[in-house]
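#lab-general

N.A. 3:47 PM
ok so I finally got the sequence cleaned up, no stray characters, all 274 residues accounted for. can someone with queue access submit it? mine expired

B.Y. 3:52 PM
send it over

N.A. 3:53 PM
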Amino acid sequence: MDRRSLVAVAAAAAWALAGCSAGPAKVSVVDAAPVQVHAAGSLREAFTEIARDHEARTGQKVALTFGASGLLRERIEKGEPAQVFASADTEHPQRLAARGGWSTPRVFTRNALCALTSDQISATPDTLLATLLRSGVRVGTSTPKADPSGDYAWALFRRADQLQPGAYALLDAKALKLTGGADSPQPPAGRGTYAWVMEQRQADVFLTYCTNAVAAQAEVPRLRVVQLPPALQVGAAYGLTVRADAPAAAQAFAQALQQPSAQAVLRRLGFAAP
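B.Y. 4:20 PM
back already:
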């Protein structure tokens, strides 16, 4: 076994043992360089608070970079110096691990899809599918492959087809990929992506994470949040991976994300237990 393989195996073993420990890993010396964390955009509010608490508790600086998980993974593959990657799915961190040099991903939190609607749309969970299928209703999504939220929306379309044959083809054709792509328009500084998209009336219904939908409604109160019926619901599992040669400070931050204090922040903001 070559040196790189030995390093990867050792890091994976340490990562696995850390997940079983009772508390955060102890970092005897604070790393002068910030821990480089790349995270899904839907984690922005939670990770900003968690990183601030972590810095106050340990003295270790954390540099956060947010974006669509697929685009972040591509940037990491091209050489961006991420040490911790928190994705809105498990596929993208698994792809890094398969290339070598990253730990086996662990699910650290969960989310779900909701429908964010304009005030002109009257929908309930029971009528949501019929609303999505109406010819005059514009359905917004994120961009599949680049952003897991888009992939989850297409999984919803497949579930819809089981309930109403032909629904997938109709939704696949009409869905507007408005966010999460490399060329997607960005909201003005200080504005939430989904609140801005809906306020600009780019869609009548936007399928996004429930946490995003609730945050958008808080920013633009006239928007409505509609829960998906169980038959259409698609769960989102968030995967966490750490670079094999990352310093102890990065390992400690990744471990801290799974501890009660960080998990409490995620719960308060609408995420679910892993």
